[in-house]
Structure formats: structure tokens, C-alpha cells
Design brief:
Layout (H helix, E strand, L loop, with lengths): L1 E5 L3 H9 L7 E6 L9 E2 L2 E4 L11 E4 L3 H12 L6 E2 L4 E2 L10 E2 L7 E2 L8 E2 L3 H8 L11 H9 L8 E5 L5 H10 L4 E6 L12 E5 L5 H11 L4 E4 L5 H11 L8 E5 L18 H12 L19 E7 L2 E6 L17
Parallel strand pairs: 1-2, 1-5, 2-4, 5-6, 11-12, 11-14, 12-13, 14-15
Antiparallel strand pairs: 3-4, 7-9, 8-10, 15-17, 16-17
Helix pairs in contact: 3-5, 6-7
């Protein structure tokens, strides 16, 4: 892929240092509106006037800053098609990326721009993916591999009278997605600290305003709409909030329900309270794996979270997601049998 970078600032410096796909693209030059930068170079790539774009043959113009403003300039001043203008986060190489159950009809070892995908370029495996890419909805921000995990655990509720609590409403697009996916029998409840999210209510979709850091608020939501079959934590992503919310909501979850905490990569980000092997949601979830096996632990060694014993059927770890299946279990039973047919 032949690329022209627009913007000769720190974002470009960072991109050229950190991008994992540089070997899969041919960077022709860097364009910038600042004439004092013309003739200089960043990482060996010359900075030129935007006018030079007219005379080049290229696949994409990669805008590094002020995207909407620069895109408007490129379209109006230089006649560049919007489909040729993109941002760094939309560059991928399929074979190097976790796409979940999604695949692209292209060379897997070639760099491509995923900002503009048509139906004949993408293969989808479930209704969530279809809705995300081509359904009519408000803004939804999701990692692509999430849709496969959602579908694996949520598909059993399609068409049923499922009750779902989603922590974090944002722009309201995911509330639309869940209603479309589960059907008209579903009750979808979103909670958010932003009062403007109330506008996203519709039939069978409810929004309550409050913080996931408020135990009384969480309990009140469960009293009003629960017990829930599904709880999805897509809230603040602060590790303390993730842990505290789980401790309040998991015991209130319906038996055979699903608790899914996503964006758990923040367990490694200091800005969210994360640190490798620190006091994080990932470490909290790891400890619950021991609780899952409590009957096999030497007496006297139990020291973790006994309030969750006999409540967890399974714990599943994925990139940036942890899924808990709730079921009253009790002691596991083992036996040996040998049966013979009567002669």
C-alpha cells in the first residue's frame, strides 16, 4: 500500500516509531501545511507541501492530527476522494490481527484500510457483526474480536425474555445493538454517570443515571429490573470499579447467568489503576480460579473469596475480556463404573 502521511508533528514521530505495520506499507512522503517544515525529514521521510499530493500515485492519505479539518481541506482544495483519506487506527494487516470470527476478502499479508468496507469485502459470522458494520445505529466502539465472544455466550438468550444490564452507555449504540440481537422480548438496562444518556431510552430499553462506584445505586437497579441474566461491564474501566461492581452484582445475577467484564487490558495501564501483578481485576479474576477449585485445596489454605464458592461454573479469559458463568455447583462428584450386559 502506497501511503502519504499528512502532518509533520509528534503524532507522526510516534507513529513511525511504534506502528507494527510499517513493513507492509510504502510511505512516499510526509505533507504538512507549515512551510517551515518543508525540506526537512522525519525518520528519513521528506516533508513536502500538500500541493505535491496532486502529482503522486498513492493508495491512501494518512491524516495524523485534526482529522475532520484536514479531510475537508484535502477534499475541497485537492479534490481527493474521502475514501482515500484515513487515520492510523484503521490500518491493519489481517494475518497479524485478532479479528475474532470476522475475516476480510483480501490478501492476508497486505496492509489495508478498514475505514471503508463494503459488504463484498468482509465475511461476518453473527448478527452482532452484521449490525455493527452495516446496521443503522448510533456510535459503537468495539474491538472486533469481542463480537465472537459475545455471540458464544449470549446466543442462547436470542428470542427469550432476557434481562441485561450494561454498565456504560456512552453514545447509546450498543443498547440498540443488544435490542436488535436479543429481540423484542429482551429488557435492556444501561447505566451511566452522564445524564444526557437518558435520551437513549426506547421501548424495552431503560437508562438509569448513576455511578458504578455507588453500591446502593447498583443494588437499586437490580431491584428495579433484575434479576439480570447478563451483566456487561463496559463502564469506567478503572480496576477498582471493575472489582467492586463484580462483588456487588455477581451475587445478584440470576443462576445460569453471564457476567462479562471487558476492556480488562486496563489492568496493565497505570492511568486506570493497573499494573502487572498489581491489585487489578485480572489478578482478582485469577484468584477466583482458585475458588473454583476450592474443594481440592488443602484445608487451611483457603484465603481468597469464599463468598463466591459454589457460584461459579466457569471463568474464561480472552484478550481484554473475562467471562464468568454463574451456576450453583456444590461439590463435584467422581465415581468409577464398569457395567456388563446381562447374558
Amino acid at each position: 500500500m502506497k501511503v502519504i502521511i499528512f502532518g509533520a508533528g509528534q503524532n507522526t514521530v510516534n507513529f513511525l516509531k511504534a506502528c507494527r505495520f510499517l513493513d507492509y506499507m510504502e510511505i512516499l512522503f510526509i505533507a504538512d501545511n507549515d512551510d517551515s517544515k518543508w525540506g526537512t525529514a522525519i525518520a528519513g521521510y521528506e516533508v513536502k507541501p500538500p500541493e505535491k499530493i496532486r502529482s503522486e500515485t498513492y493508495d491512501k492519505v494518512l491524516v495524523m492530527t485534526h482529522f475532520d479539518e484536514i479531510k475537508e481541506q484535502l477534499v475541497s482544495d485537492y479534490g481527493i476522494s474521502e475514501n482515500k483519506i484515513t487515520q492510523a487506527e484503521y490500518f491493519i494487516v489481517p494475518e497479524l490481527c485478532n479479528l475474532g470470527s470476522i475475516s476480510l476478502k483480501c490478501e492476508q499479508n497486505q496492509c489495508r484500510d478498514i475505514a471503508h468496507l463494503s459488504r463484498n469485502e468482509i465475511v461476518m459470522d453473527n448478527a452482532l457483526e452484521e449490525f455493527f458494520f452495516f446496521g443503522e445505529h448510533r456510535i459503537i466502539n468495539k474491538w472486533w474480536h469481542y463480537f465472537e465472544v459475545y455471540h458464544d455466550y449470549f446466543q442462547k438468550y436470542i428470542g427469550r425474555t432476557v434481562r441485561m444490564l450494561e454498565i456504560g452507555v456512552a453514545k447509546g449504540g450498543s443498547l440498540q445493538m443488544w435490542k436488535h440481537y436479543f429481540g423484542e422480548k429482551a429488557v435492556i438496562v444501561g447505566i451511566d454517570i452522564d445524564g444526557t444518556c437518558k435520551q437513549y431510552e426506547e421501548d424495552n430499553v431503560y437508562v438509569r443515571i448513576g455511578s458504578q462506584d455507588d453500591p446502593d445505586f447498583l443494588k437499586k437497579a437490580c431491584e428495579e429490573f433484575g434479576p439480570f441474566d447478563i451483566v456487561l461491564d463496559d463502564g469506567s474501566h478503572a480496576v477498582k470499579h471493575q472489582i467492586d461492581s463484580f462483588q456487588i452484582l455477581f451475587p445478584l445475577l440470576k443462576n445460569d447467568g453471564i457476567y462479562l467484564c471487558e476492556d480488562t487490558h486496563t489492568s496493565y495501564w497505570p492511568s486506570f489503576g493497573g499494573k502487572l501483578h498489581g491489585d487489578t481485576f485480572i489478578e482478582f479474576a485469577k484468584n477466583l480460579v482458585d475458588e473454583l477449585h476450592y474443594q481440592h485445596i488443602e484445608r487451611g489454605d483457603e484465603k481468597l473469596a469464599p463468598q463466591f464458592r459454589n457460584q461459579i461454573k466457569g471463568i474464561h479469559f480472552y484478550d481484554s475480556m473475562v467471562v464468568f458463568e454463574k451456576r450453583k455447583t456444590g461439590l463435584s462428584i467422581w465415581s468409577m463404573r464398569e457395567n456388563h450386559r446381562d447374558e
